[in-house]
Amino acid sequence: MSEWFAKGRSIDSVDIRDRAVQYGDGLFETIAIRDGQPRFWPLHIKRLQLGCHRLGIAAPDEAELAADLDAALHQCAFDTTHCAAKIVVTAGTGQRGYRRSGGAGPSVWIGVFRAQKIPASAYKDGIDVRLCHLRLAKQPQLAGLKTLNRLEQVMACAEWDDSNIFEGLMLDPDDRLICGTMSNVFIVTANSLKTPAITRCGVAGIMRQHLLAIIADAGIDCEVADISVGQSLAADEMFLTNSQFGVLPVRRCGQHTWSQHAVSRRIMALAAQNDVPECRI
């Protein structure tokens, strides 16, 4: 169940001329709402503003956006103490054609969704993932951003229908591990952490950013670098991050399994101490 709002008012349709509908011309942020408040709001706003700058879209005023989100949460018919919000910013309406005609200004839509809680067993025992066949196209100008064009993720998710598979891991054309369809990836080798560089493609997640900061504050080294498939499967541990579920250890990828999650659990405990209580096991 979800509800949608624009400028503090409930909506049930959008303009077919909007460039989001025609070309996927825009960005979005999916924010965890905990105790009625948006988690990591400053990080989400910063990424949204960066994305608007890169795409040449006027960024919404932060104070107005916060007020609109608050209004949406208070108008929802369901309990928004623990839920998710999606902020969509588009290039607005325009004439047919790829070139923006200008004048209309951006559209801003806010959706509020019931949260999908992850079973406690996933945090305790780990999750199963698979490698996706579809490759992420390299485009440094869009790397890191959450643009509205998610066809690569849609097609990757269509590769499996096994409910036991929690996530699909995505590679670039050079077989470098980049991220999951909805998550970022960390590997552990000899107690050292590494996460893929998001410079050519992929999304730089907010939870990834939060973890990199608190890991550094804790004096734990984490290298941001290219990672091959072989390196990832040869690692001692693997875990995924996402703004909604926090941190989840991986127990299987294809035929490869991980039975130890000591470092992953240490990172989960650190996350639980820093505003991500879902990771407390």
User: What is the class of the largest domain in the CATH system?
Assistant: Alpha Beta
Q: Indicate the radius of gyration in whole angstroms.
A: 19 Å
| Average predicted local confidence, pLDDT | 96
Uncertain runs with pLDDT below 50, 5 residues or more? none
How many beta-strand runs? 15
Largest sheet: 9 strands, mixed
| Secondary-structure element pattern, one letter each | EEHEEHHEEHEHEEEEHEHEEEH
* The CATH architecture of the largest domain: Alpha-Beta Barrel
Instruction: Say what the CATH topology of the largest domain is.
Output: D-amino Acid Aminotransferase, Chain A, domain 2
Number of helices: 8
Shape: globular
Describe the 3D structure:
By secondary structure, the protein is an alpha+beta fold. The protein folds into two domains: 2-114, D-amino Acid Aminotransferase, Chain A, domain 1; 120-279, Alpha-Beta Barrel (D-amino Acid Aminotransferase, Chain A, domain 2), CATH 3.20.10. 27% of the residues lie in helices and 31% in strands. The chain has eight helices and 15 strands. It has helices at residues 19-23, 41-55, 62-75, 120-125, 151-157, 206-217, 229-234, 262-272, and strands spanning 2-6, 9-11, 26-34, 37-38, 82-90, 107-114, 127-135, 165-171, 177-180, 184-189, 192-196, 222-225, 237-242, 246-253, 256-257. Strands 7, 8, 9, 10, 11, 12, 13, 14 and 15 form a nine-stranded mixed β-sheet that branches. Strand 1 and strand 2 (9-11) form a beta hairpin. The protein is globular, with a radius of gyration of 19 Å. The mean pLDDT is 96.
